[in-house]
Amino acid sequence: MSHDTLRVRLLxxxxxxxxxxxxxxxxxxxxxxxxxxxxxxxxxxxASARNDPDAAGAIPRHLFRPAYGVEGHLHQFAEDAxxxxxxxxxxxxxxxxxxxxxxxxxxxxxxAAALLAKLEYDGRRSMRSQAYLLGHLAxxxxxxxxxxxxxxxxxxxxxxxxxxxxxxxxxxxxxxxGFVALLFSLxxxxxxxxGLLMLRRLRGELLPLEEPVLxxxxxELDRVAAPGLWQWLGQIADRAGAPLPDHVVTGIEHCYFVTxxxxxxxxxxxxxxxxxxxxxxxxxxxxxxAESAAIIGHELGHFAAGxxxxxxxxxxxxxxxxxRIERIAAPEDGRVGLLGKPGLWAALYFLERFERxxxxxNRRQELAADKVGARVAGARVFAIAxxxxxxxxxxxxxxxxxxxxxxxxxxxxxxxxxxxxxxxEQDSARRLEHPFDSHPPTYQRIADLSLALDxxxxxxxxxxxxxxxxxxxxxxxxxxxxxxR
Length: 485
Prior knowledge:
70% helix; protease
Protein backbone atom coordinates (compact mmCIF):
# COMPACT_ATOMS: atom_id res chain seq x y z
CA MET A 1 0.00 0.00 0.00
CA SER A 2 1.38 3.40 -0.97
CA HIS A 3 2.20 6.11 1.55
CA ASP A 4 -0.53 8.39 0.16
CA THR A 5 -3.21 5.68 0.29
CA LEU A 6 -2.29 4.82 3.85
CA ARG A 7 -2.38 8.48 4.83
CA VAL A 8 -5.81 9.03 3.25
CA ARG A 9 -7.26 6.04 5.09
CA LEU A 10 -5.72 7.20 8.34
CA LEU A 11 -7.21 10.68 7.92
CA UNK A 12 -10.60 9.22 7.05
CA UNK A 13 -10.80 6.93 10.04
CA UNK A 14 -9.19 9.34 12.51
CA UNK A 15 -11.49 12.25 11.71
CA UNK A 16 -14.64 11.06 9.89
CA UNK A 17 -15.73 8.71 12.67
CA UNK A 18 -15.41 11.42 15.38
CA UNK A 19 -17.21 13.83 13.03
CA UNK A 20 -20.09 11.38 12.53
CA UNK A 21 -20.36 10.75 16.27
CA UNK A 22 -20.26 14.48 16.99
CA UNK A 23 -23.06 15.06 14.48
CA UNK A 24 -25.21 12.34 16.06
CA UNK A 25 -24.71 13.80 19.55
CA UNK A 26 -25.55 17.25 18.18
CA UNK A 27 -28.81 15.88 16.77
CA UNK A 28 -29.59 14.28 20.13
CA UNK A 29 -28.93 17.58 21.92
CA UNK A 30 -31.22 19.31 19.40
CA UNK A 31 -33.97 16.78 20.17
CA UNK A 32 -33.76 17.61 23.88
CA UNK A 33 -33.80 21.38 23.24
CA UNK A 34 -36.63 21.00 20.74
CA UNK A 35 -38.75 19.06 23.25
CA UNK A 36 -38.22 21.71 25.94
CA UNK A 37 -39.05 24.49 23.45
CA UNK A 38 -42.24 22.66 22.47
CA UNK A 39 -43.23 22.43 26.13
CA UNK A 40 -42.72 26.16 26.63
CA UNK A 41 -44.65 26.95 23.46
CA UNK A 42 -47.59 24.71 24.41
CA UNK A 43 -47.85 26.29 27.86
CA UNK A 44 -47.52 29.84 26.51
CA UNK A 45 -50.01 29.21 23.69
CA UNK A 46 -52.51 27.56 26.05
CA ALA A 47 -52.32 30.51 28.48
CA SER A 48 -52.84 32.97 25.61
CA ALA A 49 -55.71 30.96 24.11
CA ARG A 50 -57.57 30.79 27.43
CA ASN A 51 -57.41 34.57 27.81
CA ASP A 52 -58.30 35.39 24.22
CA PRO A 53 -58.71 32.53 21.70
CA ASP A 54 -58.54 34.96 18.79
CA ALA A 55 -55.21 36.38 19.99
CA ALA A 56 -53.46 32.98 20.17
CA GLY A 57 -50.56 32.73 17.75
CA ALA A 58 -50.04 30.25 14.95
CA ILE A 59 -49.19 26.71 15.93
CA PRO A 60 -45.97 25.19 14.51
CA ARG A 61 -46.58 22.64 11.82
CA HIS A 62 -45.25 19.66 13.79
CA LEU A 63 -47.67 20.45 16.69
CA PHE A 64 -50.71 21.44 14.65
CA ARG A 65 -53.56 18.94 14.29
CA PRO A 66 -56.00 19.93 11.52
CA ALA A 67 -58.95 18.09 13.08
CA TYR A 68 -58.60 19.92 16.40
CA GLY A 69 -60.04 23.27 17.20
CA VAL A 70 -58.84 25.58 19.93
CA GLU A 71 -60.36 23.42 22.67
CA GLY A 72 -58.90 20.28 21.18
CA HIS A 73 -55.45 21.82 21.04
CA LEU A 74 -55.79 23.11 24.59
CA HIS A 75 -56.63 19.64 25.83
CA GLN A 76 -53.89 17.93 23.80
CA PHE A 77 -51.26 20.52 24.71
CA ALA A 78 -52.10 20.12 28.38
CA GLU A 79 -51.52 16.36 28.17
CA ASP A 80 -48.35 16.69 26.12
CA ALA A 81 -46.85 19.42 28.29
CA UNK A 82 -47.57 17.42 31.43
CA UNK A 83 -45.94 14.32 29.91
CA UNK A 84 -42.85 16.39 29.10
CA UNK A 85 -42.81 17.83 32.62
CA UNK A 86 -42.87 14.33 34.10
CA UNK A 87 -40.00 13.42 31.77
CA UNK A 88 -37.82 16.38 32.88
CA UNK A 89 -35.33 14.24 34.89
CA UNK A 90 -34.81 11.92 31.92
CA UNK A 91 -34.61 14.88 29.55
CA UNK A 92 -31.91 16.43 31.71
CA UNK A 93 -29.99 13.15 31.72
CA UNK A 94 -30.36 12.80 27.95
CA UNK A 95 -29.14 16.36 27.51
CA UNK A 96 -26.09 15.57 29.64
CA UNK A 97 -25.42 12.40 27.62
CA UNK A 98 -25.65 14.36 24.36
CA UNK A 99 -23.21 16.97 25.66
CA UNK A 100 -20.88 14.22 26.90
CA UNK A 101 -21.04 12.51 23.50
CA UNK A 102 -20.12 15.74 21.71
CA UNK A 103 -17.27 16.35 24.14
CA UNK A 104 -15.86 12.82 23.64
CA UNK A 105 -16.15 13.04 19.85
CA UNK A 106 -14.44 16.44 19.81
CA UNK A 107 -11.72 15.24 22.18
CA UNK A 108 -11.07 12.17 19.99
CA UNK A 109 -10.61 14.45 16.97
CA UNK A 110 -8.11 16.58 18.91
CA UNK A 111 -6.23 13.47 20.04
CA ALA A 112 -6.18 12.30 16.40
CA ALA A 113 -4.75 15.65 15.28
CA ALA A 114 -2.02 15.51 17.94
CA LEU A 115 -1.20 11.90 17.05
CA LEU A 116 -0.99 12.58 13.33
CA ALA A 117 1.10 15.72 13.79
CA LYS A 118 3.59 13.89 16.00
CA LEU A 119 3.82 10.94 13.60
CA GLU A 120 4.54 13.30 10.71
CA TYR A 121 7.14 15.22 12.71
CA ASP A 122 8.92 12.11 13.96
CA GLY A 123 8.87 10.54 10.50
CA ARG A 124 10.43 13.58 8.84
CA ARG A 125 13.05 14.04 11.56
CA SER A 126 13.97 10.35 11.42
CA MET A 127 14.64 10.62 7.68
CA ARG A 128 17.04 13.50 8.34
CA SER A 129 18.82 12.15 11.41
CA GLN A 130 19.68 8.57 12.29
CA ALA A 131 20.38 9.66 15.86
CA TYR A 132 16.82 10.95 16.11
CA LEU A 133 15.50 7.63 14.80
CA LEU A 134 17.60 5.68 17.31
CA GLY A 135 16.45 7.83 20.20
CA HIS A 136 12.78 8.16 19.36
CA LEU A 137 11.44 4.81 18.14
CA ALA A 138 10.74 3.42 21.62
CA UNK A 139 9.41 6.76 23.04
CA UNK A 140 7.23 7.21 19.94
CA UNK A 141 5.82 3.71 20.43
CA UNK A 142 5.02 4.51 24.07
CA UNK A 143 3.25 7.67 22.93
CA UNK A 144 1.31 5.68 20.35
CA UNK A 145 0.42 3.21 23.11
CA UNK A 146 -1.16 6.06 25.07
CA UNK A 147 -2.84 8.08 22.33
CA UNK A 148 -4.35 5.27 20.25
CA UNK A 149 -6.20 3.62 23.18
CA UNK A 150 -7.22 7.10 24.36
CA UNK A 151 -8.64 7.88 20.91
CA UNK A 152 -10.45 4.53 20.76
CA UNK A 153 -11.70 4.95 24.34
CA UNK A 154 -13.16 8.36 23.53
CA UNK A 155 -14.95 6.93 20.49
CA UNK A 156 -16.34 4.08 22.59
CA UNK A 157 -17.45 6.54 25.29
CA UNK A 158 -19.16 8.76 22.71
CA UNK A 159 -21.02 5.83 21.16
CA UNK A 160 -21.96 4.44 24.59
CA UNK A 161 -23.45 7.79 25.64
CA UNK A 162 -25.42 7.99 22.40
CA UNK A 163 -26.80 4.48 22.73
CA UNK A 164 -27.72 5.09 26.36
CA UNK A 165 -29.48 8.26 25.21
CA UNK A 166 -31.55 6.24 22.73
CA UNK A 167 -32.31 3.61 25.37
CA UNK A 168 -33.58 6.30 27.76
CA UNK A 169 -35.63 7.88 24.97
CA UNK A 170 -37.17 4.49 24.21
CA UNK A 171 -38.00 4.05 27.90
CA UNK A 172 -39.68 7.47 28.07
CA UNK A 173 -41.71 6.76 24.91
CA UNK A 174 -42.26 3.03 25.40
CA UNK A 175 -46.06 3.26 25.18
CA UNK A 176 -45.86 5.24 21.95
CA UNK A 177 -43.79 2.60 20.14
CA GLY A 178 -40.48 3.77 21.61
CA PHE A 179 -39.24 0.18 21.60
CA VAL A 180 -38.97 0.37 17.80
CA ALA A 181 -36.03 2.79 18.10
CA LEU A 182 -34.37 0.39 20.51
CA LEU A 183 -34.65 -2.43 17.99
CA PHE A 184 -33.06 -0.30 15.27
CA SER A 185 -30.13 0.53 17.57
CA LEU A 186 -29.27 -3.13 18.30
CA UNK A 187 -26.57 -3.32 15.54
CA UNK A 188 -24.89 -0.31 17.14
CA UNK A 189 -24.76 -2.11 20.47
CA UNK A 190 -22.84 -4.87 18.70
CA UNK A 191 -20.54 -2.18 17.28
CA UNK A 192 -20.00 -0.89 20.80
CA UNK A 193 -19.13 -4.39 22.01
CA UNK A 194 -16.61 -4.74 19.16
CA GLY A 195 -15.11 -1.39 20.13
CA LEU A 196 -14.67 -2.50 23.73
CA LEU A 197 -12.96 -5.71 22.63
CA MET A 198 -10.70 -3.78 20.24
CA LEU A 199 -9.82 -1.32 23.01
CA ARG A 200 -8.78 -4.23 25.18
CA ARG A 201 -6.64 -5.65 22.36
CA LEU A 202 -5.02 -2.27 21.71
CA ARG A 203 -4.10 -1.88 25.36
CA GLY A 204 -2.54 -5.34 25.30
CA GLU A 205 -0.55 -4.96 22.08
CA LEU A 206 0.58 -1.35 22.55
CA LEU A 207 2.40 -1.99 25.80
CA PRO A 208 5.97 -0.62 26.09
CA LEU A 209 8.50 -2.55 24.04
CA GLU A 210 10.52 -5.22 25.78
CA GLU A 211 14.29 -5.04 26.13
CA PRO A 212 15.68 -6.31 22.82
CA VAL A 213 17.12 -9.81 23.22
CA LEU A 214 18.07 -12.17 20.39
CA UNK A 215 17.35 -15.84 20.99
CA UNK A 216 19.85 -17.75 18.90
CA UNK A 217 20.52 -21.45 18.39
CA UNK A 218 24.21 -22.15 17.92
CA UNK A 219 27.60 -22.91 19.46
CA GLU A 220 30.09 -20.36 20.72
CA LEU A 221 33.70 -20.83 19.59
CA ASP A 222 36.11 -19.03 21.90
CA ARG A 223 39.84 -18.47 21.36
CA VAL A 224 40.72 -21.66 23.21
CA ALA A 225 38.31 -23.83 21.23
CA ALA A 226 39.22 -22.39 17.80
CA PRO A 227 42.55 -20.50 17.85
CA GLY A 228 43.08 -20.94 14.11
CA LEU A 229 39.71 -19.42 13.32
CA TRP A 230 40.37 -16.46 15.59
CA GLN A 231 43.78 -15.88 13.99
CA TRP A 232 42.14 -15.86 10.57
CA LEU A 233 39.47 -13.42 11.80
CA GLY A 234 42.24 -11.19 13.15
CA GLN A 235 43.78 -10.99 9.68
CA ILE A 236 40.41 -10.04 8.19
CA ALA A 237 39.85 -7.42 10.90
CA ASP A 238 43.27 -5.89 10.17
CA ARG A 239 42.47 -5.57 6.47
CA ALA A 240 39.02 -4.19 7.26
CA GLY A 241 40.30 -1.74 9.85
CA ALA A 242 37.70 -3.11 12.24
CA PRO A 243 37.73 -4.49 15.78
CA LEU A 244 37.49 -8.21 16.42
CA PRO A 245 34.24 -9.58 17.82
CA ASP A 246 34.00 -10.57 21.46
CA HIS A 247 32.14 -13.76 20.57
CA VAL A 248 31.94 -16.05 17.54
CA VAL A 249 28.87 -18.25 17.18
CA THR A 250 28.31 -20.93 14.55
CA GLY A 251 24.90 -22.24 13.54
CA ILE A 252 22.67 -23.11 10.61
CA GLU A 253 19.66 -20.80 11.07
CA HIS A 254 20.81 -17.56 9.45
CA CYS A 255 23.24 -15.99 7.03
CA TYR A 256 26.36 -14.13 8.25
CA PHE A 257 25.64 -11.26 10.64
CA VAL A 258 27.10 -9.22 13.49
CA THR A 259 25.36 -7.65 16.44
CA UNK A 260 25.92 -5.95 19.75
CA UNK A 261 22.48 -6.89 21.04
CA UNK A 262 22.13 -9.14 24.05
CA UNK A 263 21.97 -12.80 22.99
CA UNK A 264 20.57 -15.85 24.73
CA UNK A 265 22.33 -18.79 23.13
CA UNK A 266 20.21 -21.93 22.94
CA UNK A 267 19.91 -24.68 23.91
CA UNK A 268 21.42 -23.79 27.30
CA UNK A 269 20.37 -20.14 27.36
CA UNK A 270 23.93 -18.80 27.67
CA UNK A 271 23.90 -14.97 27.71
CA UNK A 272 26.31 -13.17 25.39
CA UNK A 273 26.96 -9.44 25.48
CA UNK A 274 29.24 -7.29 23.38
CA UNK A 275 30.21 -7.73 19.74
CA UNK A 276 29.10 -11.08 18.28
CA UNK A 277 29.88 -12.55 14.85
CA UNK A 278 27.60 -15.31 13.54
CA UNK A 279 29.13 -17.76 11.02
CA UNK A 280 26.58 -20.03 9.30
CA UNK A 281 27.91 -23.53 8.65
CA UNK A 282 25.45 -23.86 5.77
CA UNK A 283 27.05 -21.03 3.79
CA UNK A 284 30.64 -21.34 5.01
CA UNK A 285 30.97 -24.99 3.94
CA UNK A 286 30.00 -24.33 0.30
CA UNK A 287 31.78 -21.01 -0.28
CA UNK A 288 35.48 -20.41 -0.77
CA UNK A 289 37.66 -19.06 2.00
CA ALA A 290 38.11 -15.77 0.11
CA GLU A 291 34.35 -15.38 -0.41
CA SER A 292 33.64 -16.01 3.26
CA ALA A 293 36.41 -13.58 4.20
CA ALA A 294 34.79 -10.91 2.01
CA ILE A 295 31.39 -11.41 3.64
CA ILE A 296 32.89 -11.41 7.14
CA GLY A 297 34.86 -8.27 6.23
CA HIS A 298 31.55 -6.64 5.31
CA GLU A 299 30.07 -7.66 8.66
CA LEU A 300 33.08 -6.45 10.65
CA GLY A 301 32.74 -3.19 8.75
CA HIS A 302 29.55 -2.61 10.73
CA PHE A 303 31.62 -2.78 13.92
CA ALA A 304 34.10 -0.26 12.51
CA ALA A 305 31.32 2.18 11.58
CA GLY A 306 29.54 1.75 14.91
CA UNK A 307 26.37 0.55 13.15
CA UNK A 308 25.78 -2.25 15.62
CA UNK A 309 26.05 -0.15 18.77
CA UNK A 310 22.38 0.81 18.50
CA UNK A 311 21.32 -0.55 15.13
CA UNK A 312 20.72 -4.11 16.34
CA UNK A 313 18.55 -2.91 19.21
CA UNK A 314 16.69 -0.64 16.81
CA UNK A 315 16.10 -3.54 14.44
CA UNK A 316 14.81 -5.80 17.19
CA UNK A 317 12.52 -3.03 18.43
CA UNK A 318 11.27 -2.48 14.89
CA UNK A 319 10.51 -6.19 14.55
CA UNK A 320 8.61 -6.12 17.85
CA UNK A 321 6.57 -3.19 16.54
CA UNK A 322 5.78 -4.99 13.28
CA UNK A 323 4.76 -8.20 15.07
CA ARG A 324 2.43 -6.39 17.45
CA ILE A 325 0.81 -4.37 14.70
CA GLU A 326 0.30 -7.53 12.65
CA ARG A 327 -1.52 -9.05 15.63
CA ILE A 328 -3.74 -5.95 15.85
CA ALA A 329 -4.46 -6.11 12.12
CA ALA A 330 -5.24 -9.85 12.16
CA PRO A 331 -7.11 -10.64 15.39
CA GLU A 332 -8.11 -14.17 16.27
CA ASP A 333 -11.72 -13.60 15.23
CA GLY A 334 -10.56 -12.21 11.88
CA ARG A 335 -12.41 -8.89 12.25
CA VAL A 336 -11.46 -5.35 13.18
CA GLY A 337 -14.53 -3.34 14.19
CA LEU A 338 -15.25 0.15 12.90
CA LEU A 339 -14.19 1.75 16.17
CA GLY A 340 -10.91 -0.16 15.98
CA LYS A 341 -10.07 1.06 12.46
CA PRO A 342 -8.57 4.42 13.53
CA GLY A 343 -6.18 2.72 15.96
CA LEU A 344 -5.24 0.10 13.38
CA TRP A 345 -4.47 2.64 10.66
CA ALA A 346 -2.58 4.86 13.09
CA ALA A 347 -0.41 1.89 14.05
CA LEU A 348 0.14 0.98 10.39
CA TYR A 349 1.07 4.59 9.59
CA PHE A 350 3.48 4.62 12.53
CA LEU A 351 5.12 1.47 11.18
CA GLU A 352 5.33 2.88 7.65
CA ARG A 353 6.92 6.15 8.75
CA PHE A 354 9.58 4.56 10.94
CA GLU A 355 10.27 1.64 8.59
CA ARG A 356 10.90 4.07 5.76
CA UNK A 357 13.49 5.92 7.86
CA UNK A 358 14.94 2.66 9.19
CA UNK A 359 15.45 1.22 5.69
CA UNK A 360 16.84 4.53 4.45
CA UNK A 361 19.65 4.51 7.02
CA ASN A 362 20.09 0.75 6.79
CA ARG A 363 20.76 1.01 3.05
CA ARG A 364 23.49 3.58 3.64
CA GLN A 365 25.13 1.39 6.27
CA GLU A 366 25.05 -1.70 4.06
CA LEU A 367 26.57 0.05 1.05
CA ALA A 368 29.34 1.48 3.24
CA ALA A 369 30.03 -1.97 4.73
CA ASP A 370 30.16 -3.41 1.19
CA LYS A 371 33.17 -1.20 0.52
CA VAL A 372 34.91 -2.81 3.50
CA GLY A 373 34.11 -6.31 2.24
CA ALA A 374 35.50 -5.38 -1.17
CA ARG A 375 38.66 -4.06 0.48
CA VAL A 376 39.23 -7.37 2.28
CA ALA A 377 39.08 -9.73 -0.72
CA GLY A 378 38.57 -7.58 -3.79
CA ALA A 379 35.41 -6.18 -5.35
CA ARG A 380 34.84 -9.10 -7.76
CA VAL A 381 35.26 -11.74 -5.05
CA PHE A 382 32.86 -9.82 -2.83
CA ALA A 383 30.34 -9.52 -5.67
CA ILE A 384 30.61 -13.28 -6.36
CA ALA A 385 30.10 -13.94 -2.65
CA UNK A 386 26.97 -11.78 -2.63
CA UNK A 387 25.51 -13.59 -5.63
CA UNK A 388 26.41 -16.98 -4.21
CA UNK A 389 24.76 -16.25 -0.87
CA UNK A 390 21.62 -15.13 -2.71
CA UNK A 391 21.46 -18.36 -4.69
CA UNK A 392 22.25 -20.44 -1.61
CA UNK A 393 19.46 -18.77 0.36
CA UNK A 394 16.87 -20.12 -2.06
CA UNK A 395 18.39 -23.62 -2.09
CA UNK A 396 18.61 -23.74 1.71
CA UNK A 397 14.95 -22.76 1.97
CA UNK A 398 13.98 -25.63 -0.34
CA UNK A 399 16.11 -28.15 1.55
CA UNK A 400 14.65 -27.04 4.87
CA UNK A 401 11.15 -27.53 3.46
CA UNK A 402 11.99 -31.02 2.20
CA UNK A 403 10.97 -33.89 4.53
CA UNK A 404 13.96 -35.89 3.18
CA UNK A 405 16.49 -33.48 4.69
CA UNK A 406 18.03 -34.99 7.82
CA UNK A 407 21.32 -33.06 8.05
CA UNK A 408 21.09 -29.69 6.34
CA UNK A 409 24.85 -29.12 5.94
CA UNK A 410 25.46 -32.59 4.48
CA UNK A 411 22.42 -32.33 2.21
CA UNK A 412 23.62 -28.96 0.95
CA UNK A 413 27.19 -30.06 0.21
CA UNK A 414 26.03 -33.34 -1.38
CA UNK A 415 23.67 -31.45 -3.67
CA UNK A 416 26.28 -28.89 -4.75
CA UNK A 417 28.93 -31.50 -5.52
CA UNK A 418 26.91 -32.54 -8.53
CA UNK A 419 24.77 -29.52 -9.32
CA UNK A 420 25.60 -25.91 -10.00
CA UNK A 421 23.57 -23.25 -8.27
CA UNK A 422 20.53 -21.74 -9.92
CA UNK A 423 20.88 -17.99 -10.20
CA UNK A 424 18.55 -15.69 -12.12
CA GLU A 425 17.35 -12.10 -12.03
CA GLN A 426 15.02 -12.88 -9.15
CA ASP A 427 17.97 -14.09 -7.09
CA SER A 428 20.00 -10.98 -7.93
CA ALA A 429 17.10 -8.86 -6.68
CA ARG A 430 16.88 -10.83 -3.44
CA ARG A 431 17.42 -8.91 -0.23
CA LEU A 432 19.57 -10.95 2.12
CA GLU A 433 17.93 -11.02 5.52
CA HIS A 434 19.16 -11.97 8.97
CA PRO A 435 17.82 -11.18 12.45
CA PHE A 436 18.64 -7.48 12.16
CA ASP A 437 18.70 -6.06 8.64
CA SER A 438 17.11 -6.26 5.26
CA HIS A 439 19.83 -5.42 2.75
CA PRO A 440 19.38 -3.49 -0.50
CA PRO A 441 18.81 -5.67 -3.59
CA THR A 442 22.02 -7.46 -4.54
CA TYR A 443 22.22 -6.05 -8.07
CA GLN A 444 22.18 -2.53 -6.58
CA ARG A 445 25.00 -3.44 -4.23
CA ILE A 446 27.09 -4.81 -7.11
CA ALA A 447 26.43 -1.69 -9.18
CA ASP A 448 27.50 0.46 -6.23
CA LEU A 449 30.87 -1.34 -6.37
CA SER A 450 31.24 -0.11 -9.99
CA LEU A 451 30.94 -3.66 -11.32
CA ALA A 452 28.79 -5.03 -14.10
CA LEU A 453 26.65 -8.09 -13.46
CA ASP A 454 28.34 -10.02 -16.28
CA UNK A 455 28.38 -13.69 -17.29
CA UNK A 456 31.71 -14.34 -15.58
CA UNK A 457 30.38 -13.18 -12.22
CA UNK A 458 27.28 -15.34 -12.62
CA UNK A 459 29.31 -18.35 -13.76
CA UNK A 460 31.61 -18.22 -10.75
CA UNK A 461 28.70 -17.68 -8.37
CA UNK A 462 26.89 -20.73 -9.81
CA UNK A 463 29.88 -23.07 -9.70
CA UNK A 464 29.65 -26.51 -8.11
CA UNK A 465 31.24 -26.86 -4.71
CA UNK A 466 34.93 -27.81 -4.60
CA UNK A 467 36.79 -29.90 -2.04
CA UNK A 468 38.54 -26.77 -0.80
CA UNK A 469 35.17 -25.03 -0.29
CA UNK A 470 34.08 -27.78 2.08
CA UNK A 471 37.38 -28.17 3.94
CA UNK A 472 38.85 -24.71 4.60
CA UNK A 473 36.70 -24.06 7.68
CA UNK A 474 37.58 -27.45 9.16
CA UNK A 475 41.28 -26.67 8.63
CA UNK A 476 40.91 -23.40 10.52
CA UNK A 477 39.01 -25.09 13.34
CA UNK A 478 41.70 -27.79 13.60
CA UNK A 479 44.62 -25.35 13.34
CA UNK A 480 46.37 -24.81 16.67
CA UNK A 481 45.03 -28.01 18.20
CA UNK A 482 47.53 -30.09 16.24
CA UNK A 483 50.41 -27.91 17.43
CA UNK A 484 49.34 -28.26 21.05
CA ARG A 485 49.19 -32.01 20.68
